Write a sequence for this structure.
């Protein structure tokens, strides 16, 4: 594919990922998802500041990894674009990032009760989900990751994992492409819901480290990702794309 074709495809897939994650009730009006530029790894693509449910191709902006807008587009970007850029800086293996506020994950950010994979699809979020707390390093803030320093701090908490929680705020997910970021984000939310629904009945029986590794490797391979992507895009109103 030519560079222009690759870029066009990435923009199309990013629009779909926005619609999918909104339709699956992962990203609300204030969440966002990005993709690394397909031919320039030092840049990334992210919508302007807009509800993901209504993002279109025209909304997609291009940024340097430090959050600098490449063009002179006067529209407002997401304040939390630094989440995306700093993870791309720290993780060459990551090509897509999401930030969401799925309500089911937030209780695990406010307590010492860890979020762990309890059903096989939840394995894709990884065995360990650390919690980032801005308070010790940055004091009282507006709880928004709106600077490079905060982004770098959050990226350090994520480390080499796929997911992390933000205390009293939400979560971040990191994956190798947009299909995978949708799988990780959606099943992180679903796993948290299942754990919360199980707790009144007793202590959940979590997956073992080996089960997590084997199940996630299988689920994040091409066939399951393609099958899931077709399902999610059709549910979001874009069948056959």
């Amino acid at each position: 594919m030519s560079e222009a074709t690759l870029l066009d495809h990435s923009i199309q897939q990013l629009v779909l990922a926005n619609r999918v994650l909104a339709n699956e009730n992962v990203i609300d009006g204030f969440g966002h998802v990005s993709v690394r530029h397909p031919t320039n790894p030092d840049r990334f693509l992210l919508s302007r500041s807009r509800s993901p449910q209504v993002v279109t191709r025209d909304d997609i902006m291009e940024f340097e990894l430090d959050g600098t807008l490449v063009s002179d587009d006067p529209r407002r970007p997401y304040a939390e674009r630094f989440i995306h850029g700093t993870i791309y800086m720290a993780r060459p293996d990551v090509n897509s990032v999401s930030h969401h506020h799925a309500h089911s994950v937030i209780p695990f950010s406010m307590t010492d009760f860890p979020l762990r994979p309890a059903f096989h699809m939840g394995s894709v979020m990884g065995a360990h989900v650390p919690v980032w707390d801005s308070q010790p390093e940055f004091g009282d803030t507006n709880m928004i990751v709106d600077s490079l320093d905060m982004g770098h701090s959050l990226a350090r908490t994520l480390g080499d994992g796929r997911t992390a929680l933000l205390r009293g705020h939400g979560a971040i997910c990191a994956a190798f492409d947009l299909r995978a970021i949708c799988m990780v984000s959606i099943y992180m939310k679903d796993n948290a819901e299942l754990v919360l629904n199980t707790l009144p009945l007793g202590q959940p029986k979590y997956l073992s480290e080996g089960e997590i590794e084997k199940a996630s490797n299988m689920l994040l391979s091409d066939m399951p990702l393609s099958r899931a992507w077709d399902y999610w895009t059709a549910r979001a109103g874009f069948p056959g794309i």
The longest helix spans residues 3-23. The helical segments are 3-23, 81-90, 106-109, 135-138, 148-158, 178-198, 209-219, 222-235. Strands lie at 32-36, 43-47, 60-64, 96-100, 131-132, 163-166, 170-175.
